Amino acid sequence: MESDRSDIWLSQTDVPDAKSAIFIGEINDEIIKNEMHNFPTGILVISLLNISDLLNKYQNLFFEKANQNISDLKESVEKFLRLDQDNSPIVKCSHLTNSDEAKKYLDALDLVIGVIDSTLRVRKTRKETGFLRQSHVIKNLANYLNNRIPDEWKNLASGSIAVVVGAGPSLDCTLNLLKSLDKPLIISTDSGLRSLQKLGIKPNFVLSIDPEKTFESCCDAGFTKGTLILSTQSNPSWSDNWNNSVRFISGRVISEDWLSEKGVGKTSVLAENNVGLSAISFANFLSPSLIILVGMDLSGGGQGEIRYAKITGREQIVTNASVNHEIPGNFSETVLTPFLSDWQETSQTCQKISSIRPIINLNDRGAKLEGTNIIHPDDFNNIKDTLNENFSPFPIQPLDLNLSRSINQFGKTQLAIKLTRICDLVWKTIHNRNKSNPSIGLKILLSDKEIASVLGDYTFSVFSILLSKKKIEHQTIELAYSQLEQLIWQLEDSILDMNPSEDFITAFLLGKVN
User: Fold this and answer.
1) How far are the Cα atoms of 11, 204, 218 from residue 312, in angstroms, in the given order?
2) Closest by Cα among 190, 138, 26, 108 to 493
3) Would you say 149 and 248 are in contact if contact means Cβ atoms under 8 Å apart?
4) Residue 118 pLDDT more than 80?
5) What's the pTM?
């Protein structure tokens, strides 16, 4: 078949079970027609050529212009990936003969690979840790309702320098330089916290959004300086051990979307992709006059496997990635990274922020972040006096720091009533499930939009099993029911922790919520 000839494609990925494909470049109609039966789910063509005649012929053929807005193209690729939740598509790029158009196609190729990488990681994570993530969401529910960050923090750092502390290998030679700055605002990622403790630097804010990363793995007991910023999926060990104030930011969480529909507005800054990126976005939200990044390498040391600086106490944790991607470097043409989507999103965010305020990337290695000004540690002494002269010290305890965003008791009571009704429906399904075919009850239950949204990532992980064409083992369904019971017990505890009205609490304890 013509489309199998090796000289047609410049590159293509190897996905044995692929039922869909993405073609990038100048691809003629004959090649597309020959490939259609190989990919029954569909083919997405990203090109500058017109294929309108074929689009009218094939319902599972899709087309996007290669030179369109990046965010629109990204949205279209994400939509196409949703056609097959189990398998990723093969990606094929044609030979590029026109040098003027080649960059558009290569940019599209980078975007597609990044979106697939990010989507697969999210899907894999949700399938493997859906119950854990949703358990955290439910345990953090009351705190999220009562202690979201307020919009009044928007100008908290105006006139000051905000330093975002990551945990990359370069942190070993950059962190100590912060001591020469006159009271900057320090925002630490969770993995960078122990390094601050070792140097006696007190953070103003600490962010942790990873469901599996515990307080104990990042910090010694008692070092709970500053305000802790969490997401609903954060490991509860952080709020359990933190002695100072705790605030929450919203994220890309299904249950939070449901809460938003019920009037619980999301925060102006979101937890996104990874804690480093979230910390940069949070710093930007506080409106400093300058942002400095330290330990934001976005690439690994060695052959890409070294993830953390020695000073973090996490240097023994390495990344065993099957694929390391070559991306632009700060002091070399390219560097290796297993975190392709992390780097892409962080670089795009930095580029957007840099149009509002300058960003310095204090680093002696690492990946290039668009829009940032790279400063080598050896050159930092040349600019520190200028920084101290031109930017104000951050106040020790701004008055706005005591504020939080919450909903009133009436709103919490109404929400508690809705959640209690959902709990009752779930318990009814659990107790009355068909013993010979218990999966039926779960399918019906999780097909309800309200229930599916409240159970969020658990729904996603279980539904992927229920919709699979493979035979479902009895013990798998029983485990799903066992996890569901645990979530509902936790949800009922959280309903009481929300501080609804006394009348509701009485009715709830007596089982008489209408």
Assistant:
1) 39, 18, 8
2) 138
3) yes
4) no
5) 0.79
